[in-house]
Amino acid sequence: MSTKKSVIIVMGAEEDLPVMQGAINRLKYFSIPFTVRVVSAHRSPYAAEELAKTARDNGVGVIIAAAGKAAHLAGVLAAYTTLPVIAVPLKASALDGLDALLSMVQMPKGVPVATVAIDGSDNAGILAAQILSVTDSEIEGKLAAFKKEMVDEYAKKDAAMAAREW
Q1: pLDDT per residue over 116-152, tens digit each?
Q2: Which string of b and e fits 120-152 if b means at least 16 CB within 10 Å?
Q3: 7 sits in which H/E element
Q4: Exposure winner among 53, 118, 125, 127, fewest CB in 10 A?
């Protein structure tokens, strides 16, 4: 059995997968093991409770929870675990995700949930990697390389822009 911490990506509906593909891709990039689940805070609350309560014992280090509309999934999971929970608000209603965002960032005292941008699953994957990198030097090295790639990419873009004849 691996001692490497994993991540659980929990979606309120399987239709959320296209948005959550960004987090999946980031976790793959950083070689972080993960599982993907469909659990609803409202339609399968006992499954949500069980998932959160057993996650640490199952080698999980971070939970990423994606939901739209009322978006209680991240908060429900956070209520049942001491693991960090990252919420991804989804555009799933006429309010374009603002309802989900507000639901996630307005957590009561004692039940914190880190929240990324609406449909910001890429950042959820990166944040999960940053959290795990505190105790995993391999992930830390991959994060450093990732950040350097971003710097190099933008230096090239800047140089190309500066070289343009206007």
Answers
A1: 999 999 999 999 999 999 999 999 999 999 999 999 9
A2: bbbbbbbbbbebbbeebeebbebbeeeeeeeee
A3: strand 6-11
A4: 53
For residue 60, report the phi and psi dihedrals to the nearest 5 degrees. -85, 140
Residue by residue, DSSP assigns 79-118 as HT-SS-EEEEEE--STTTTHHHHHHHHTPPTT---EE--T
pLDDT per residue as tens digits for the range 21-78: 999 999 999 999 999 999 999 999 999 999 999 999 999 999 999 999 889 999 999 9
Integer Cα distance of 16 and 112 in angstroms: 23
Query: What structural domains does the chain harbor?
Result: 6-136 (3.40.50.1970)
CB 62 within 8 A of CB 7: yes
Task: List, for residues 93-112, the tens digit of each pLDDT value.
Answer: 889 999 999 999 999 999 99
